[in-house]
Amino acid sequence: MDNVTILGAQPKSAASPIVPTVLSIIIPTLNERENIEPLLALVTAALPDTEWEAIFVDDDSLDGTPEHVRALARRNPRVRCLQRIGRRGLATACTEGVLASASPYIAVMDADLQHDERLLPQMLEALDSGSADLVVGSRYVAGGGVGAWSSGRVRISGFATWLARFICKADIADPLSGFFMCRREVFEAALRRMSGQGFKVLLDLLASSPEPPRVTELPYSFRERQHGESKLDTMIAWEYGMLLADKLVGRFVPVRFALFGLIGGLGLVVHLATLWLALNSLGIEFAAAQAIATMVAMTSNFVLNNQFTYRDQRLHGLGLLRGLVIFYLICGVGAVANVGVASYAFTSSHTWWLAGVAGAVVGSVWNFAMSSVFTWRRR
After folding, report:
1. DSSP β-bridge partners for residue 107
2. Which of 20-29, 92-101, 133-142, 164-173 has the lowest mean pLDDT?
């Protein structure tokens, strides 16, 4: 056994000393293949004297981004790829990237080249000196700017920043910045309270911190995207609203459950409208009309929940059809539970409205819990 030589192994005396990584740069990606190499070149030039790593957290891009990052990683030990299948979202991508790292300092930046990598040494210096716990690349302090944004986008950003004041625990000019660096313990202290909603991970971090961190803002000008397409759309605004709602009322009622219930209320309206139409316009007998209305309402609930409540776990293709069938079955059992509990409550209290509410609550909780486990289960 002593004479066996392991292929590729080197004597211990010839091994290079291991230099610990000081900074982990978390870079979420979705179809950013053309930006990867230019970004790495810029970061390398900005941090010549720092031991750093770049962790690209990819949400299963279709343009070959994860494959390209892995090819680069085989030549560059600073580069790592964390590919996620079946889930999306910048906030959760950043969280998983942080958990996959071990460095004392964590930076978050986009892959689209719009953030100024030349700030990284200044950010690191501010943290290392002990003058700050978190350093933000800010567009809204003196010397910063938003580049060539339209006036409409500037107004929307200003309004979103104003809304952020309601949940932000730190007094900073740009709580919606996607470019920041912090001590690992700052992120870890907030981690279990973070909602993971949407794209504004810095705001989520600030709102979830048990104690307001010491924040320093450094100005930079937002650049124009060079390759790929912007991810900004109306659903980003929706997810931002979900983040605000979670931080404002999430400790009382889970926002996902509240949204599920709201869509259930809309489903009741759809049910009644369909029932009226079937009875009065189509002349269908009541039993058949009720069955049609029930199916239409359940289908509309499924579609809306898939689009909004479980946006981060949306079903597609055959999974969508399978999920719809499971949702029908769950709601069918929920209806039986609703009637059973309501009947028992009415027998006990003889208060019709209390019995009705009890049945509706039990049915809603059942539908939500079972749908979360079986219809939109995390993959």
Report:
1. 25, 181
2. 164-173
Binned at pLDDT 50, 70 and 90, residue 293 comes out as confident
> Which segments of the chain are extended strands (E)?
23-29, 52-58, 79-83, 105-108, 134-138, 180-183, 215-219
Dihedral angle sign, alpha carbons of residues 141, 143, 147, 150:
positive
Q: DSSP secondary-structure letter at 142?
A: T
* Structural domain that includes position 238: 17-249
Residue 21 DSSP code: P
Q: What is the pTM of this model?
A: 0.71
Residues 218, 280, single domain; the answer is no
What does the alpha-carbon distance between residue 22 and residue 31 come to, in Å, rounded to a whole number? 28
* Distance, CA of 241 to CA of 253 (rounded, Å): 15
Strands 180-183 and 105-108: antiparallel
Long-range contacts of 309-312 (CB under 8 A, 24+ apart): 309/256, 309/259, 309/260, 309/263, 310/256, 310/376, 311/235, 311/238, 311/239, 312/87, 312/88, 312/89, 312/92
Shared domain for 292 and 218, answered yes or no, is no
